[in-house]
Design goal:
heterodimer, A: mainly alpha, two-stranded antiparallel ribbon, 15 helices, B: alpha+beta, 4-stranded antiparallel beta sheet, 10 strands
Chain lengths: 420, 257
């Protein structure tokens, strides 16, 4: 039997052998890897089943159509699978699978006379309103897109557009079904539409943006303040009562006489006798004479141990004439004498210094304001007493001022609360 | 061994007024070295003096120590009784002079410190400054009152003896063998209290300007200040009332909200 090679050999030598497609050619990479070797078939490492046609091939068609959800007449060419079995439903373009998601935003519509009757607005012309509604429908009710889409000569903010649309919707809803006939859900929708406040919305959005961009320390500060506020709110009651208390104490009448002079039993008896005598002189007697004298001396809130108030004791420790006492500068005892040596000018300088330097400054400023010199060169007992009285009043004034500050703060907070 | 403290007179206090201050002059001025040392523009005297009509200060004050600024040679100057307790120096800067007062032995008290700020430049209201410049004399002094609380008995005796006023009185002989009489010949009666009227207002440095009259002036001024203060308190009270009313209103309004 003549083989191919034989026939070839018999033919002319210019016969060039072509690659036989029937014979599986060695893989190109293998051929490239060994360029010097002639192309040979690589042995297969695994058994690959020969390609076999399992069933009938599916039939695919390539045609043009318009997606159902588009308004423009776009022609789209798509490969679509023809139905593999006859009992399936009609071929649906894949695009229509998504048709169910094509939800339109509902905006009420109006005609011209309704507009002329109910929907007129000084800032909005009919064209603008129509444009707004068209844009709304077009942009599917997404307001950021509507704002971009809506282009007129006057620049309108999102809130303005929203308010116009909502107010029109509300009015139309009202027209359709009067308020009394509305169902609950309709009524709630109506209420919501009516209560749209563009300014409030704008400020709310600004606030939210501010919140977003807050730095860390502000956040911390705010937490602290909020907790403080909470504490205050919780204890509102107690704070109020404390404030009342303070006010009552400040308005307490300051005694101009030293109460200490009445704390010995002798002085008390004399006081009692005096009061009794005074009472007897009155028409209606209120005191009843007792065996034992006993009222506590009135404690004045702002009394400083006044060393200069001289209520003479009954027994004089020194036997000298009054004139001599004066001449030699001898003073009979007050309640409590400091030991050793003291200086009168200290009584004019020590009360001016308070515990904190801020307080000292305040005292100095007030004293300067009322005209008390910094250095009083004459510390006689009368002057000292006068000065002490002034200092007592000064303390009251400073306390009043402190309370005033706190109350002002409270007032501000409360009025802010009301305003909000 | 410290002496046992003698009995104290209970319930008594003895007060003595005295003056602490300084005078200052622009150099050259009689009484100060001439030409003045380099850079020194002012001559000053710091002193501790009794009232011109008062009892002798040396009864209770035995020694005074003036502590000057450390830049002075011999910064610590001590003056003993009886000499006038004063220190004169030249200088150019103001500073605080620490004055240490040493008391008489019988008082049994420790020494105390007072401070006096040396004033060299004219001060006060304009007319006062003009006068100071004109006369070339600046006086800055203040009245101090020292109070001896519950003095010892001996101290009490010395402080209440008539001898204290001898320094103001004139000795008048009564004849041989008898103690000389001390008769007071001055205008104002000697007393430990302030004199009624200013004795000698011109001699401000000698303490003549202190008087009951001046005291009344100071009191009047203080009373005025007190009145102003009262007004301010009234204002504040009104404000408080107003605020209380508003607080209530707001409280009600918040509650109603």
């Amino acid at each position: 039997m003549a083989t191919g090679s034989d026939i070839r050999a018999a033919l002319a030598s210019d016969f060039t052998p072509t690659v036989d497609p029937l014979r599986a050619a060695p893989t190109p990479t293998a051929a490239r890897a060994t360029p010097n070797q002639p192309r040979t078939r690589q042995p297969r490492l695994h058994k690959k089943p020969a390609l076999r046609n399992r069933g009938r091939a599916a039939h695919w068609t390539y045609d043009t159509s318009t997606p159902p959800t588009r308004r423009d007449r776009l022609q789209v060419r798509q490969w679509r699978r023809a139905a593999p079995s006859a009992d399936s439903t009609d071929v649906e373009p894949p695009a229509s699978k998504f048709a169910k998601y094509d939800v339109k935003a509902e905006a009420p519509s109006y005609d011209d006379e309704t507009y002329a009757q109910h929907l007129n607005h000084p800032d909005w012309t009919k064209e603008e309103t129509d444009l707004l509604f068209a844009a709304y429908e077009e942009c599917n009710g997404k307001w950021p897109v509507v704002v971009d889409h809506y282009e007129t000569s006057t620049h309108r903010s999102m809130e303005e557009l929203k308010s116009r649309l909502y107010s029109i919707s509300a009015t139309l809803l009202n027209l359709q079904t009067p308020m009394t006939a509305m169902t609950a859900s309709e009524y709630s929708t109506y209420e919501v539409l009516k209560s749209f406040d563009p300014l409030k919305e704008a400020s709310r959005k600004k606030l939210a943006e501010g919140h977003l961009r807050r730095p860390r320390n502000e956040v911390d500060e705010e937490t602290v303040l909020l907790s403080e506020l909470q504490r205050i709110m919780l204890h509102q009651q107690t704070l109020d009562s404390e404030r009342e208390d303070l006010r009552r104490r400040l308005q307490h009448p300051v005694a101009d006489q030293n109460g200490y002079q009445y704390s010995t039993s002798q002085a008390l008896t004399t006081l009692w006798q005096q009061l009794l005598a005074a009472d007897r002189a009155k028409k209606t007697q209120r005191l009843r004479p007792l065996e034992i004298s006993g009222s506590r001396p009135s404690q004045s809130a702002a009394s400083i141990a006044d060393a200069t108030s001289a209520t003479p004791q009954t027994a004089q420790a020194v036997d000298m004439s009054k004139q001599d006492l004066l001449r030699f500068g001898v003073v009979q005892a007050q309640e409590k004498l400091p030991t050793g040596i003291s200086f009168a000018s200290d009584k004019l300088s020590k009360p001016r210094v308070a515990k904190s330097s801020l307080q000292t400054d305040k005292i100095a400023a007030t004293l300067a304001h009322i005209g008390v010199p910094e250095l009083i060169p004459l510390p006689t007992p009368a002057v000292v007493e006068q000065f002490e009285r002034i200092m007592a009043k000064m303390q009251t004034l400073l306390d009043l001022r402190k309370v005033a500050e706190k109350e002002e703060q409270e007032l501000r907070v409360r009025s802010a609360e009301l305003g909000v | 061994m410290p002496a046992a403290p003698s009995k104290r007179v209970k319930g008594t206090q003895i007060r003595r007024h005295f003056l602490i201050g300084n005078t200052a002059h622009v150099l050259p001025h009689p009484g100060f070295p001439d030409p003045p040392p380099d850079g020194h523009t002012k001559g000053w005297t710091v002193y501790v003096r009794p009232l011109p009509n008062g009892p002798d200060i040396t009864t209770w004050l035995k020694k005074v120590q003036f502590k000057l600024h450390h830049t002075y040679a011999d910064a610590s100057r001590t003056i003993e009784a009886p000499g006038p307790f004063e220190v004169s120096e030249t200088g150019y800067g103001e500073f605080g002079v620490e004055i240490r007062l040493y008391f008489a032995q019988e008082s049994g008290e420790k020494a105390v410190y007072r401070e006096h700020y040396l004033v060299l430049a004219p001060y006060g209201p304009d007319d006062q400054r003009a006068r100071q410049e004109r006369e070339n004399k600046i006086v800055a002094e203040r009245l101090e009152t020292i109070e001896f609380n519950e003095p010892t008995q001996e101290f009490f005796k010395t402080l209440t003896s008539e001898d204290q006023f001898n320094w103001l009185k004139v000795k008048k002989g009564r004849g041989k063998g008898k103690k000389p009489d001390y008769i007071f010949e001055g205008a104002v009666e000697p007393t430990a209290q302030l004199p009624e009227k200013a004795m000698d207002p011109g001699q401000a440095g000698a303490g003549g300007a202190w008087s009951v009259q001046y005291e009344r002036q100071v009191l009047a001024q203080l009373q005025q200040s007190g009145a102003t203060l009262d007004q301010m308190i009234e204002e504040e009270k009104r404000g408080m009332e107003e605020r209380r009313r508003r607080l209530e209103e707001l409280g009600v309004a918040i509650g109603a909200k």
